Amino acid sequence: MKNIIYISDISPEFEMDMLPQILKSAQQRNSMNNITGMLFYGSGHFMQSIEGPDEEVRELIVRIGKDKRHRNIQIIANREIEHRMFPNWWMGLSNMDDRVLLSEEYCELIQTNLDDIEDSSEYEAAVLEFFRDFCEYVGDESESWQADA
Ligand SMILES: Cc1cc2nc3c(=O)[nH]c(=O)nc-3n(C[C@H](O)[C@H](O)[C@H](O)COP(=O)(O)O)c2cc1C
User: Fold this and answer.
1) CB burial of residue 68 (10 Å; 0-12, 13-18, 19+)
2) Mutate to test the pocket of ligand 1, among 8, 19, 29 (most ligand atoms within 8 A of CB)
3) pLDDT at residue 145 above 80?
4) Which atom of ligand 1 is nearest to 28's Cα?
5) Pocket flag, ligand 1, residue 48 (CB < 6 Å)
6) What pLDDT, on the 0 to 100 scale, is given for residue 141?
7) Are 149 and 99 in contact (CB under 8 A)?
8) Which neighbouring-strand residues pair with 54?
9) What is the pLDDT of residue 139?
10) For 11, which DSSP code?
11) Is the CB of 70 under 6 A from ligand 1?
Protein backbone atom coordinates (compact mmCIF):
# COMPACT_ATOMS: atom_id res chain seq x y z
CA MET A 1 0.00 0.00 0.00
CA LYS A 2 1.00 3.55 -0.67
CA ASN A 3 0.58 6.79 1.28
CA ILE A 4 0.98 10.24 -0.24
CA ILE A 5 0.72 13.47 1.72
CA TYR A 6 0.73 16.87 0.03
CA ILE A 7 0.22 20.51 0.90
CA SER A 8 -1.32 23.01 -1.51
CA ASP A 9 -2.62 26.57 -1.72
CA ILE A 10 -6.25 27.27 -2.49
CA SER A 11 -6.64 28.98 -5.87
CA PRO A 12 -8.73 32.06 -6.72
CA GLU A 13 -11.27 29.64 -8.18
CA PHE A 14 -11.86 28.02 -4.82
CA GLU A 15 -14.83 29.03 -2.70
CA MET A 16 -15.71 27.76 0.74
CA ASP A 17 -19.03 26.33 -0.34
CA MET A 18 -17.17 23.94 -2.67
CA LEU A 19 -15.80 21.99 0.31
CA PRO A 20 -18.85 19.77 0.96
CA GLN A 21 -19.02 18.86 -2.73
CA ILE A 22 -15.30 18.05 -2.89
CA LEU A 23 -15.70 15.82 0.15
CA LYS A 24 -18.82 14.07 -1.07
CA SER A 25 -17.47 13.19 -4.50
CA ALA A 26 -14.09 12.24 -3.00
CA GLN A 27 -15.80 9.81 -0.62
CA GLN A 28 -17.87 8.26 -3.38
CA ARG A 29 -14.92 7.79 -5.66
CA ASN A 30 -12.45 6.73 -2.98
CA SER A 31 -14.82 4.03 -1.71
CA MET A 32 -14.77 2.48 -5.18
CA ASN A 33 -10.95 2.59 -5.30
CA ASN A 34 -10.31 1.43 -1.73
CA ILE A 35 -8.69 4.77 -0.86
CA THR A 36 -8.92 6.29 2.61
CA GLY A 37 -7.49 9.44 4.13
CA MET A 38 -7.89 12.86 5.66
CA LEU A 39 -8.20 16.34 4.20
CA PHE A 40 -7.32 19.39 6.27
CA TYR A 41 -8.45 22.79 5.13
CA GLY A 42 -7.42 26.08 6.73
CA SER A 43 -5.49 29.34 6.42
CA GLY A 44 -5.83 29.23 2.66
CA HIS A 45 -4.27 25.78 2.30
CA PHE A 46 -5.06 22.12 1.99
CA MET A 47 -3.11 19.29 3.55
CA GLN A 48 -4.25 15.84 2.52
CA SER A 49 -3.18 12.28 3.20
CA ILE A 50 -4.33 9.58 0.81
CA GLU A 51 -3.67 5.88 1.36
CA GLY A 52 -4.54 2.76 -0.57
CA PRO A 53 -3.38 0.47 -3.39
CA ASP A 54 -0.28 1.84 -5.20
CA GLU A 55 -1.83 2.28 -8.61
CA GLU A 56 -5.03 3.91 -7.34
CA VAL A 57 -3.12 6.35 -5.13
CA ARG A 58 -0.82 7.29 -8.01
CA GLU A 59 -3.77 7.81 -10.30
CA LEU A 60 -5.58 9.93 -7.71
CA ILE A 61 -2.66 12.23 -6.99
CA VAL A 62 -2.36 12.97 -10.73
CA ARG A 63 -6.08 13.79 -10.86
CA ILE A 64 -5.89 15.97 -7.73
CA GLY A 65 -2.83 17.71 -9.18
CA LYS A 66 -4.85 18.86 -12.19
CA ASP A 67 -7.66 20.28 -10.07
CA LYS A 68 -7.98 24.05 -10.61
CA ARG A 69 -9.40 24.64 -7.14
CA HIS A 70 -5.90 24.55 -5.69
CA ARG A 71 -2.32 25.06 -6.86
CA ASN A 72 1.31 24.82 -5.85
CA ILE A 73 0.93 21.21 -4.77
CA GLN A 74 3.97 19.99 -2.88
CA ILE A 75 4.42 16.33 -2.04
CA ILE A 76 5.56 15.94 1.55
CA ALA A 77 5.51 12.16 1.84
CA ASN A 78 5.39 9.35 -0.69
CA ARG A 79 5.91 6.08 1.13
CA GLU A 80 5.04 2.44 1.39
CA ILE A 81 2.80 1.57 4.33
CA GLU A 82 1.53 -1.62 5.87
CA HIS A 83 -1.33 -0.13 7.86
CA ARG A 84 -3.74 2.65 7.14
CA MET A 85 -3.90 5.62 9.48
CA PHE A 86 -7.54 6.36 8.57
CA PRO A 87 -9.11 2.95 7.86
CA ASN A 88 -12.62 4.21 8.66
CA TRP A 89 -12.75 7.26 6.41
CA TRP A 90 -13.06 7.19 2.64
CA MET A 91 -12.04 10.79 3.20
CA GLY A 92 -12.34 12.76 6.41
CA LEU A 93 -12.43 16.53 6.49
CA SER A 94 -11.29 18.91 9.16
CA ASN A 95 -11.77 22.63 8.76
CA MET A 96 -8.92 23.99 10.85
CA ASP A 97 -10.26 27.55 10.66
CA ASP A 98 -13.14 26.37 12.87
CA ARG A 99 -11.13 24.22 15.23
CA VAL A 100 -9.00 24.83 18.27
CA LEU A 101 -7.61 21.32 18.56
CA LEU A 102 -4.16 21.15 16.90
CA SER A 103 -4.83 24.35 14.94
CA GLU A 104 -1.60 25.95 16.14
CA GLU A 105 0.38 22.92 15.02
CA TYR A 106 -1.44 22.96 11.68
CA CYS A 107 -0.64 26.65 11.09
CA GLU A 108 2.98 26.14 12.00
CA LEU A 109 3.35 23.31 9.48
CA ILE A 110 1.44 25.08 6.75
CA GLN A 111 3.31 28.36 7.15
CA THR A 112 6.73 26.76 6.91
CA ASN A 113 8.47 27.93 3.76
CA LEU A 114 9.43 24.64 2.17
CA ASP A 115 12.21 26.33 0.18
CA ASP A 116 13.98 27.14 3.44
CA ILE A 117 13.99 23.57 4.66
CA GLU A 118 17.37 21.89 4.63
CA ASP A 119 16.23 18.49 5.80
CA SER A 120 12.96 17.55 4.14
CA SER A 121 12.81 14.26 6.05
CA GLU A 122 12.56 16.24 9.27
CA TYR A 123 9.58 18.16 7.90
CA GLU A 124 7.99 14.92 6.69
CA ALA A 125 8.42 13.48 10.19
CA ALA A 126 6.75 16.55 11.72
CA VAL A 127 3.80 16.24 9.34
CA LEU A 128 3.44 12.52 10.08
CA GLU A 129 3.50 13.29 13.79
CA PHE A 130 0.73 15.83 13.26
CA PHE A 131 -1.40 13.19 11.53
CA ARG A 132 -0.69 10.69 14.32
CA ASP A 133 -1.60 13.24 17.01
CA PHE A 134 -4.78 14.00 15.14
CA CYS A 135 -5.71 10.29 15.06
CA GLU A 136 -4.95 9.96 18.74
CA TYR A 137 -7.11 12.93 19.75
CA VAL A 138 -10.01 12.04 17.53
CA GLY A 139 -9.77 8.36 18.45
CA ASP A 140 -13.01 6.42 18.83
CA GLU A 141 -15.10 9.52 18.43
CA SER A 142 -14.23 9.60 14.75
CA GLU A 143 -17.76 8.74 13.67
CA SER A 144 -19.53 11.56 15.49
CA TRP A 145 -16.62 13.87 14.91
CA GLN A 146 -16.76 13.39 11.18
CA ALA A 147 -20.46 14.12 11.07
CA ASP A 148 -19.96 17.60 12.44
CA ALA A 149 -16.80 18.40 10.46
C1 LIG B 1 -8.20 19.53 -2.05
C2 LIG B 1 -8.84 18.50 -2.93
C3 LIG B 1 -8.90 17.18 -2.51
C4 LIG B 1 -9.49 16.19 -3.30
N5 LIG B 1 -9.53 14.89 -2.87
C6 LIG B 1 -10.08 13.94 -3.67
C7 LIG B 1 -10.11 12.58 -3.25
O8 LIG B 1 -9.68 12.20 -2.17
N9 LIG B 1 -10.65 11.68 -4.11
C10 LIG B 1 -11.18 12.02 -5.33
O11 LIG B 1 -11.64 11.15 -6.07
N12 LIG B 1 -11.16 13.30 -5.72
C13 LIG B 1 -10.63 14.27 -4.93
N14 LIG B 1 -10.63 15.58 -5.35
C15 LIG B 1 -11.26 15.90 -6.64
C16 LIG B 1 -10.33 15.60 -7.81
O17 LIG B 1 -9.35 16.61 -7.86
C18 LIG B 1 -11.14 15.59 -9.12
O19 LIG B 1 -11.79 16.79 -9.31
C20 LIG B 1 -12.18 14.50 -9.12
O21 LIG B 1 -11.64 13.29 -8.74
C22 LIG B 1 -12.83 14.34 -10.51
O23 LIG B 1 -11.86 14.07 -11.45
P24 LIG B 1 -12.21 14.05 -13.02
O25 LIG B 1 -12.84 15.40 -13.31
O26 LIG B 1 -10.91 13.84 -13.71
O27 LIG B 1 -13.18 12.94 -13.20
C28 LIG B 1 -10.04 16.56 -4.56
C29 LIG B 1 -9.97 17.89 -4.97
C30 LIG B 1 -9.39 18.86 -4.17
C31 LIG B 1 -9.35 20.28 -4.62
Assistant:
1) exposed
2) 29
3) no
4) 11
5) yes
6) 55
7) no
8) none
9) 66
10) P
11) yes
Residue 70 domain boundaries: 2-147
Question: pLDDT digit string (tens) for 72-122?
Answer: 999 999 999 999 999 999 999 999 998 888 999 999 999 998 888 888 899
User: Domains in the chain: how many in total?
Assistant: 1
Query: What pLDDT is stored for residue 116 in this prediction?
Result: 83
Cβ of 69 below 6 Å from ligand 1: yes
Q: Is 3 in the pocket of ligand 1 (CB under 6 A)?
A: no
Q: Is the pLDDT of residue 47 over 70?
A: yes
CATH number at residue 80: 3.30.70.100
Residue 142: per-residue pLDDT: 52
109 lines ligand 1 (CB under 6 A): no
Q: Which of 67, 74, 93 to mutate to test the pocket of ligand 1 (most atoms within 8 A of CB)?
A: 67
For residue 87, the 8-state DSSP code is T
Element containing residue 117 per DSSP (H, E): none
User: What is the residue with the minimal CA distance to atom 9 of ligand 1?
Assistant: 26
Rounded CA separation 114/83 (Å) = 28
- Residues 121 and 96: their CA atoms lie apart, in Å, by 24
Residue 58 has pLDDT above 50, yes or no: yes
Q: Give me the pLDDT at residue 149, please.
A: 40
